[in-house]
Amino acid sequence: MRADSVRKMNELLGKEFETNNFGKCFVVDYKSSKEVFVMFYDPVCIVKCHLGTLNKGQIKNPLAPTFCGKGFIGVGKYGKRDSRAFSLWTSMLKRTYDSSFQKRRPTYKDVTVCEEWHNFQNFAEWCYSQKFFNAKDSKCNYYQLDKDLMIEGSKVYSPETCCFIPPLFNGLIRPKPNSTNDYPIGVRSHRETGKFVARVKLFDNYKYLGLFDTPEEAFLAYKDSKEAYIKEMTNKWKDQIDVRVYEALMNWEISTRG
What we know:
alpha+beta; 11 strands; elongated
């Protein structure tokens, strides 16, 4: 090491610097003005930076939870340039930890993200390991990140519960519940007869299933027809979905509320 570099190293080692948004750090090693190593106090993390950036306080702690108070970029090869993974990650954190979002979508109120995925490096690594991460349907829509197909009713985003599925199936397995009455999904009253109508949406058109004496009977007709349709569509997509997704869809059961 040149004499001037040695002098600079002796001058900087142990010296504290204040950063703009991440508290204090101190120099633990110096190779050159373009290769300075500093350690943050909280969370503890060593970062390589330029001396000019350090003097301006512009270095960041990749372990600091800067996304919704939970998520952090982490130390590794993935970053914002991995735009699809990054977008999915930030959206996932927003749905689960942003109170203003949850006021608009209260169904996400009790949903969480596993601690492993608070670290973007882990989430991105998982995404790139999934065969259908970057897959698109015939309309050029990306497959969607789903948390409760593998484990019905799951409230956790995690490697065990998540998968990527075509947008088509999100609508199939989670149809909109009745908004105008309290009958099971797919059922409405028939005023003229006092009985109950069952109908199901198949291939973008509604199919009439008949009149029934009770809402329960009408729902069972809807359930049988819808589950058969899901199986039919699943077999059509068999080569375009993950094996785990295929098995889950083939075993999917429609509930009274969808």
